[in-house]
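Researcher: Next sequence.
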Amino acid sequence: MAVELTADQPAGFSPPAAHVLEQTLAIARRAIVRTTRQRALIVFPMIFPLILFAINGSALSSATRIPDFPTHDYRDFLIAMPFVQGAMFVSITAGVDLARDIESGFLNRLSMTPIRGEALLVGQLGGALVLGVIQAIVYLLVGLATGVSFASGVGGALVLLALSILISFAFASLGVLLALRFGTGEAVQGIFPLLFVTLFLSSSSLPRNLIKAPWFRDVATYNPVSYLLEGLRSLVITGWDAQALALGFGFALALLVIALGLAQAAMKSRLTRT
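Model: Next structure:
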């Protein structure tokens, strides 16, 4: 049964869990339809990381001659990068979409309805989640087509998909938080260069133990993005590395929980009942 986003319940009404689920699905359906109709939001964020993967995979292939480099094929090392880059694009997509709703007054109208803030927040991420799933599958297929092999086998490829989708969901939550804090799409887009800086100041191009500049190595060590990359990369190069996977899933979950918690608080202030 469809959920009407109109004020048909008394103020202070708290719907049961089933109604909250219906509300979440209704908002998610809207977010998914809006995302799939904007093909530029799907194609460009997906293609750009693949272009960098193709360029860097060829230009930096000599890095494999460095003693103790973990693989003989640089593409095996680099394949984790498109997944994290794509997740960062997903964060901007999710944030800009919500910022449009704020600027258009859609969220203000919702404040007069009995919809729950958590239903709106999670449902709003529906489009971003679908985009993250599509990107993860495409990157995996491209990697396999270019000769990337998984030391962890088929199971490792499935775990890589799960981790990459979790990373996309976490970054999408961060994008939603930024939209709720700033309220404009321009402000959300302005944060994107800072996200990209964190990617390039990580172990994206070289293993941390092979980075010679001490300051760069220290920054990469304290940069959570390094552990997201290394968790994905371990499934390709090492196999089942429990420490790398625990750190990868742990930092992704930490980002998700923190961003969702802060976003929920920000959403409540946006949806103050009148």
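Model: The chain has one domain: 17-58+71-270. The mean pLDDT is 84.
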